[in-house]
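Input:
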Amino acid sequence: MIERKMYIAGEWADAVSGATLTTLNPSTGEELGTAPSAGDEDVARAVSAARAAFPIWSGMTQAERNKVLFRIAALIRENADEMAKIEGLEHGTPYSDAFGVCMGAAEKFEWSANAALRIKGDEIPVPGDTLTFIKREPVGVIGFIIPWNLPTIMTAVKLAPALAVGNTCVLKPPSINSLIGLKFAEVISKAEGLPPGAVNVITGPGGSVGAAIASHPGIDLVGFTGSSETGKSILASAAPTVKKCVMELGGNNPVLIFPDADIDASLKVLAWRQFNNSGQHCSGPGRYYVHESVYDEFIAKFAEYARNLKVGDPSDRAVQMGPMVSREHQSKVLGYIESAKAEGARVVTGGAAQVPGRGFFVAPTVLADCTHNMKAAREEIFGPVAVIIKYTDSDDLAALANDSEYGLCAHVWTRNIGAGMKLIGKLRVGAVFINCQMLTNEQPWGTSVKESGIGKEGGMYGMLEFTEPKLVCVNFA
Ligand code: NAD
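Output:
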């Protein structure tokens, strides 16, 4: 069993109460290790450490902070093998994917250091002998609450830009992936020049520790990624102290396959995204609307892709898809498959738990003959299950795509770029991908559309969320 401590004020700490939580290996269902289960007093300690570190870290020059960020990036690269292994053990990510994720996390720190150099003030012309300008300042202490679907990259995408612009942080990993978060803390702790308390990592149940972070008066901003349901609860916790909240929430992303779509090219992107990370991707396909003229071809090729995937132990370098992250999530995904079957969906391939060991596996699944109003089409499955719906020329594609409580992103595949471009303005989503899916460090992600979130994450838009534009007005007459 692995045993880890929390990282508070530059020291390794147990919970004051001594309580711990146990995490599991999703490939076997066996116990993997323990982490402290923090209480309110641990949250208070972490917040006060971050507050004490704030004047030190924010008072450093950008060049000084950037040196630390580059050291963190180098440390992540040096420790990527170990970090990838723990990601495989606790999250079920196949090794090569997990290693790539660690490289991506290192890049986030390098990119953020470079991007912070591009932040400039902004002068606003005013009459008379007065100078007015906007000064960008760090917001202060940020509370980060991380989801389990991509714990390492989600930590980096939040922490790196926040630190780059001078904030300090209290970060809570998802409880079921606490060891991954604490491994990240261990790597960061070795970065020379990072003041104690600039980054604090505390572990424990979301309902208590996450809520304590969101409601603490010493936290200036909450950065959260997770389900819309939890997001609403966090907004309620943050409301009494009127905190800014940057929220990356749920989605049920429509995929629109036009009659002239390049089916092979579309599946290279969509089927990969559907099954990579066991379908636990917020930007991935949620429901497919496929024109009747290419429906059979699309389904046959999708099913072939699914059948050829190697599913199993993530430490096996040939494995492409591991288990679901938890038994609870496995049951939820299987429940969606059962409900779709009961409502008339046809299982083309998969459709059940796949058990190469005792873990929380779901076979790569393709469901055909689904309808827009089925539960599996209306809700976020967040698993390796393709929900495919046939449409005809008489259907209003934009109306179908928009008929959802979510508005995260949409995928459009057509050789008629003009037709695809005309849809952009009609789709109520934060991102539209036409004939591709690409998310680089420079591109912002997230949306304030419907229940999918508030604000942006990543890119310069995301970095600026972690700054406060202060108005300065100087009369020099
Ligand atoms: P979740 O909402 O269950 O948990 C997310 C985090 O919140 C965890 O750290 C959890 O411990 C904590 N938490 C739980 N209850 C809390 C509470 N009451 N107060 C404060 N914190 C609490 O989400 P998840 O299941 O870990 O992640 C999957 C969800 O995340 C999906 O809905 C997915 O769409 C979404 N997601 C969105 C994006 C995006 O960019 N929009 C990215 C990744 C994941």
